[in-house]
Write a structure and sequence with these properties.
Length: 197
């Protein structure tokens, strides 16, 4: 109901609603582009350092996991609540051993994930590594729609399909590139000593 006392305020809130929605959308795009930029910078820097330092896969994995530890410890002590009451609440007596075992198992699994990431970065191109990183999200998005009730609409389905077809196009292009490079190296004919012209 419009009254002289609250009508102006209500109309301002209604008029500002699209602006708030647009501002939220813009900040989402900002974080998306920041993520893309920082991921690309990380990948290119890591590849150049691997070549420059002559690191093997194990060395890359070791330093990649060792360097963030001081930052994580400092941030944890500054932000987290390390009180006894909080630790007791998060690690209840009856499930404490299982939680610690699951955390240790998760940490051990990340060692091998980190190792395989270092191997992939060393043996493939930056574009292939990025494409694999993008394509591994497609099954997660599809399973979210199928099993977890994510909205199935034109936008979400078309995003998964575009990603799928982009992967196919990239695979075909890499295959054609490999064939062209192989053709440049030689005509593929086995050289024979007694070959006649």
């Amino acid at each position: 109901m419009f009254t002289p006392t609250n009508g102006a305020a209500d109309s301002t809130i209604i008029a500002d609603a699209p602006v708030v929605k647009l501002a939220g959308l813009n900040i989402g795009y900002f974080w998306m582009f920041a993520n893309c930029f920082s991921s690309a910078a990380y990948l290119l820097t890591m590849r150049s350092k691997i070549k420059q330092m002559g690191f093997k896969d194990w060395d890359t994995m070791f330093y990649n996991n060792l360097l963030p530890i001081p930052l994580l410890i400092i941030t944890s002590f500054l932000i987290e609540d390390w009180s006894t009451a909080n630790l007791s609440r998060n690690f209840p007596e009856d499930t404490r051993n299982f939680l610690l075992f699951a955390m240790a198992l998760s940490g051990a699994a990340t060692v091998w994930i980190s190792y395989s990431t270092a191997w992939c970065m060393r043996t493939t191109s930056s574009t292939t590594y990025s494409m694999v990183g993008a394509l591994n999200k497609l099954p997660v998005a599809a399973s979210g729609m199928v099993f977890f009730g994510d909205p199935v609409n034109t936008g979400s389905v078309s995003a998964v399909l575009i990603g799928f077809f982009a992967g196919i196009v990239y695979a075909i292009a890499k295959n054609n590139q490999a064939k062209a490079e192989k053709a440049k190296e030689g005509d593929g004919v086995i050289p024979l000593a007694n070959r006649r012209a």
